[in-house]
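To: structure desk
From: M.T.
Subject: fold request, one chain
Message: Could you run this one when you get a chance? Sequence is below, nothing fancy, just the single chain.
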Amino acid sequence: MLENPVKRRLKEGHAVTGLWIAVGDPLVVEMLAQQGWDWLVVDTEHNPIDLLTMATMFQAIGRFPTTPMLRIPEISELGIKRPLDAGAWGFVAPNVKTRDEAQMVADYGQYPPKGRRSLGSGRYAASFKTDPQTYFKRANDEIVRIVQIEHIEGVKNIDAILSVPGIDACYIGPNDLCASMNLAPSLEPSHKEFDEAIQTIFRAAKKHGVAPGIHCAKPETVNRRIGEGWRFVGCASDISHLLAATKLSRDLIKTD
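Reply: Done. Structure tokens follow.
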């Protein structure tokens, strides 16, 4: 069975970087996986990407040493079970605000005796290039389970959230976190209150042995966050990179 390099590197204290994927197309993620990102997260919370399309996207990513992941649409048994069975190597659970929600992430993201994930058919074993029985034995140790903190209530409950066994990392969503604090939403916030909130999260992550993560809009911010000790760091999305590149080209073109 293949080892999940993101899981291993996080355990070793290294930083891993990746992109969020909004375009539901295997050809897009195949090209991005060739670039050497540690992970690609297919965002099914906000984008019209169905389960079959997602599975083929995982297949395309799996041709390269990039970890195929997703942001689940909701925190539920079905929302976690189906994409894992479709071949995801990890998932981000959106807007976790309570310990009970974090417990659901851990429970449905792990097989018994540690969790409550059910055993069924799917392409999970093929995704890890193994057989089902080996996958059942080792999946708990290879799947990356991440809680996203993007509301001030989650910050207030962060110690309880990250105390749940089986959570590998937390990931800050700056836009929604700012909005929940009545601050102007931004992927590059400069608010003092925002900085204080993320430091609260960072300290709790270190206390509980959970990798701290955060979403960034620019490569220079990614480098700064890694230097500060953040370990699961996102560099915008496929859409934002596409728009930035095409706008740059369009602005360089002179017309009558």
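Reply (cont.): The domain at 5-252 is CATH 3.20.20.60 (TIM Barrel). Let me know if you need anything else for the meeting.
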